[in-house]
Amino acid sequence: MLSVHTNSASLSAQNAVTRASRANTTSATRLSTGYRVNSAMDDAAGLQIATRLSAQSSGMTVAMRNIQNGISLMQVADTVAGSMVDAFSRMHDLAIQAADASTTQADKTALQGEFVALFWHAWDVVATTYNGESLYVDTGAAGSDKLMQPLKFQIGDSSSDVLTGDIRSSLLNTLGVGLAYSNSQLEDVLTSHASDAIENMSEAINAWAGVRSATGAVSNTLEHAYNNLATMLSNTQAATGRIMDTDYATESANATSSQMLMQASTSMLKQSNSTVQLTLSLIS
């Protein structure tokens, strides 16, 4: 039907131009940003999932840094424990030498001086801190309170992802032997009580060897946790990318198609507008 009020062909062409223009704009946005989802309108459910995955990825990245810091802490703790083993081993040797009948009193006095020096050095070593915090003992505390609490490592993105590393359980007896001499006891520890010192130093060596074993176990666990997180992070980021990232092959084809549709619909709109001229020609 020819009418000057309603041009159905023009209306259809206008709708086609609008749809093609909108599709072309969407394709241009996706190709220019690299993201398939640029607003909630693009994929509401997908955006919600991707947001959670992105937060999880960010949390795992921080947790991986935590683990690396934890491994560094364990390396320092192991170094301290190794130094303690070395010190007590030397003190053990001195006690064995002092306990022998061939050692004169003058010799014992000389050995005593080195033993005391090593004793106070051991106290300095055990008070080593990491990032301002004591690793093993608080030298200002008394009795069993000297032992620091177990370490808690945050190794994941949730509150339940915690690794408790108790590297001090082997020290419960250590503070009562190798480091528990009073000043009066130190005065004649090798000159009069060398045999007791041998036993005490043996216990201390065993205790600190246990600490080294504990630090190694915690370090290995942290290393496994790091490798697991690295794999999970890669998979999570890949999942996020599949939701959010633009598929350039598909979107390039969509852009070409929408551009062709825009050209075709614009051409048809131009032709449909000429229909009014045909209607007017009937009454001219």
Notes on the structure:
- The protein has helices at 8-33, 44-99, 105-126, 183-186, 194-244, 248-273, 275-281, and strands spanning 129-130, 133-134, 151-154, 162-165.
- It has 284 residues and is mainly α.
- The chain has seven helices and four strands.
- Strand 3 (151-154) and strand 4 form a beta hairpin.
- The longest helix has 56 residues, at 44-99.
- The strands form two sheets. Strands 1-2 form a two-stranded antiparallel sheet. The protein has a two-stranded antiparallel sheet with strand order 3-4.
- The radius of gyration is 39 Å and the shape is rod-shaped.
- The relative contact order is 0.18.
- Belongs to the bacterial flagellin family.
- Residues 4-136 form the Flagellin N-terminal domain.
- This is Flagellin.
- It is found in: Secreted; Bacterial flagellum.
- Keywords: Bacterial flagellum, Cell projection, Cilium, Flagellum, Secreted.
